[in-house]
Amino acid sequence: MKFTIYTDGGCSGNPGPGGWAYVIVEDDAGAGPAIVEENWGAEQNTTNNRMELGAVIAALETLSRLSPAPEAIRVYTDSQYVQKGISQWIHRWKLNNWQTNEKKPVKNQDLWRRLDELSGLFLINWVWIKGHAGDLLNERCDRMTQKAIASLGPGR
Fold this sequence. Notes:
Layout: E1 2-11, E2 16-26, E3 34-46, H1 48-64, E4 72-77, H2 80-95, H3 109-119, E5 124-128, H4 136-150
Parallel strand pairs: 1-4, 4-5
Antiparallel strand pairs: 1-2, 2-3
Helix pairs in contact: 1-3
């Protein structure tokens, strides 16, 4: 089976109340691509980058429970932080004992480590797409992210 994941994360203020969302599409469905799962979550005091990472982690955790495991996954994210972080920067961070080139600890290291662990379970193609540019499933994730933030209440 092949799957495509769309993700989004955001905050109302940065840091501030935040939300994340994902949509998982099965590409091998007999009648064409089909949404097999979507989900969202929220946190009171977080950052945009943590929510972007959280969306991808939650989606991959969902797929990690499938048997048999997916053959291939394509992840669409509108976060260059996520796309470049997992496909380029993480290799150097690991070589440098989770430090940046400036010898500072990598931010969100807990989430990067979890994402690294999960991404090792699959063959993943990481794709950056421009946010708010009309991609239907990216827009759907954005709406769910806003719903997640709103779920925290007016006083957030």
